[in-house]
Each structure stands twice: as C-alpha cells, then as structure tokens.
Design brief:
The protein folds into two domains: about 80 residues; about 60 residues, no CATH class. Helices cover about 65% and strands about 5% of the residues. It is built from five helices and four strands. The strands form two sheets. Strands 1-2 form a two-stranded antiparallel sheet. A two-stranded antiparallel sheet has the order 3-4. The longest helix is centred in the N-terminal third of the chain and has 32 residues. The chain is rod-shaped, with a radius of gyration of 38 Å. The protein starts with a helix and ends with a helix.
C-alpha cells in the first residue's frame, strides 16, 4: 500500500498540463539542437574537406548518433579549413618569391647586397659582373664563356687579364 501512495502523486504530476508542456518543450529543444548540430557539421565539413565521401560520412554520423556522432566527427575532422590552407599556401609562395627576388650578390668591397643583374655596385662602383658582348647578359667575372649564348666574349678575356695582373 505504501507503493500505491507514492505512485499517486507521481501519476498526478505526469498527467498535469505543466509537466506535459515541459516535456514537449524539452522534446522540441532536443529536436532543434539535433538539427542545428547537423547544419553546423555540414557547414564545417564543407569548409574543411573537398572529399564528398568524407562530407557525407560526417553528416550521417551526426544524423544517426547525434551528440556522439558530433564527438566522433570532431576527432576525425581536419584541423585547418580549406581557406586557411589556401592562405598558408599563398603566404608560402609569396615568401619563396620574395626570397628569390632577394637572392643577390654581395659587393666584396662595401658589403652591400645588390640584385643578381647588377654589373656595378651602386654604392662603391665596384665591378660585380660583366656583360656579354653578344647577348648582353650579366656574367660572373670568372666565367670563361657565356652560359647563355656559349660564346667567348673578348670582354671576359680582358677582365680576366686585369684580375690576373692585380
């Protein structure tokens, strides 16, 4: 009989309109949360991967397993978005381009860094390279022939003779 006395207030509580209203509200809240998790997962996986099979798999995980599927997805998803990877790639390419532009010659006299195609140092007027007589490309002072056109330039021979005399 004691159990019947405990059951009666519980029965009255569960049949009340307030309890039913709260129960329906909780069910609606959980349904909206579930849909929001699916939408968030879909948007996130599209921003992180181009692989269609992985995108479908991730969304199905959340549809079938709800919050546990989301936790599994969070463990499997790529750390960085496609936009972050693209941005990093652009920065890396810009850095490499900048390094390529900065690779130059250092003047032995005044230690100024100049670009590769300079024939003379703009600071101390030291001869850095010579121009080929035929193709006019800048050549190192110790080159025997022009690596661009393959000819032996008379100016290269003159510059070499000057260096040997000094």
């Amino acid at each position: 009989m004691d159990f019947l006395n405990l059951y009666e207030p519980l029965k009255i509580l569960t049949e009340s309109h307030y309890f039913q209203f709260l129960g329906k509200g909780l069910i609606y809240y959980l349904a909206i949360l579930w849909i929001a998790l699916i939408v968030w997962t879909a948007r996130d996986v599209i921003n992180r991967s181009n692989v269609l099979l992985f995108q479908i798999f991730s969304i199905l995980l959340v549809i079938l397993f709800n919050i546990f599927g989301l936790l599994i997805y969070l463990c499997l998803r790529p750390q960085r978005t496609l936009l972050q990877n693209y941005d990093d790639e652009l920065k890396r390419k810009a850095t490499l381009d900048q390094l390529d532009k900065n690779t130059g010659v250092i003047c032995e006299v005044c230690k100024t860094e100049v670009t590769d195609d300079y024939l003379f140092c703009p600071v101390c007027k030291n001869t850095l390279k010579v121009a080929c007589n035929y193709c006019k490309k800048p050549l190192e002072l110790d080159f025997n022939i022009c690596p661009y056109c393959g000819r032996k330039s008379p100016i290269i021979a003159k510059e070499k003779d000057k260096q040997e005399k000094e």
